[in-house]
Design brief:
Helix content: 25-40%
CATH superfamily: Transposase IS200-like
Structural class: alpha+beta
Shape: globular
CATH class: Alpha Beta
CATH topology: Alpha-Beta Plaits
Order of helices and strands: EEEHEEHEH
Number of strands: 6
CATH architecture: 2-Layer Sandwich
Largest sheet: 4 strands, antiparallel
Length: 182
């Protein structure tokens, strides 16, 4: 049975290891979400496709589906640090993003097969320290992969400054969420 991918975080969120476990991170709140392209192919190295995925990420954020705190679109995977809207779950965010991207690829480029690996990884972020570590992990990803020499130089990252990112939520007794959302 193909399950949703879940990863465990060791120390400051890296390194992480993927395993075929059921996604245990289902609550609303702040999550580090990750998904891979099918067969880990470098599909997102195509500028038009990476631009499309980034556009979709921010359309859903601007529509109030989630807050986007940090992101990186790598050639074969995506990381998104997001706070879910009320009554939304990480699985719904990934369904929106992956489904819409697949739909647009078929419509615009005639791509019939899903570009995504089944499932996704989700790690609930419970503190400001974990949040800051997740942002560092996301933004350093292209540097560690040898795609650039500093996070700010990678176009498809929150570190580039090309998009307004949402501020860190407050962590405490109540799980962070988007106020006033239904």
């Amino acid at each position: 049975m193909a399950g949703v991918r879940f990863f465990s975080i060791l120390g400051a969120l890296a390194p992480y290891c993927m395993s075929r476990l059921k996604n245990l991170s289902t609550e609303e709140g702040t999550h580090l979400l990750s998904t891979n392209t099918s067969l880990h192919r470098n599909l997102l190295q195509r500028v038009q496709w990476a631009d499309l995925l980034e556009e979709i990420l921010f359309e859903y954020r601007d529509a109030g589906e989630y807050l986007a705190h940090s992101h990186v679109i790598m050639p074969n995977h995506l990381h998104l640090l997001a706070t879910t809207a009320q009554a939304k779950r990480p699985a719904k965010i990934m369904q929106f993003v992956k489904g819409r991207f697949s739909f647009e690829l078929k419509k615009q480029y005639g791509v019939g097969r899903s570009p995504w690996q089944e499932g996704f990884a989700s790690r609930r972020i419970l503190s400001s320290n974990e949040f800051r570590a997740a942002v560092r992990y996301i933004e350093e990803n292209p540097v560690k992969a040898g795609l650039c020499d500093s996070p700010e130089k990678y176009r498809y990252s929150s570190a580039s400054g090309r998009h307004r990112m949402d501020p860190m939520p407050e962590f405490g007794a109540k799980a962070p969420g988007i106020k006033g959302s239904a």
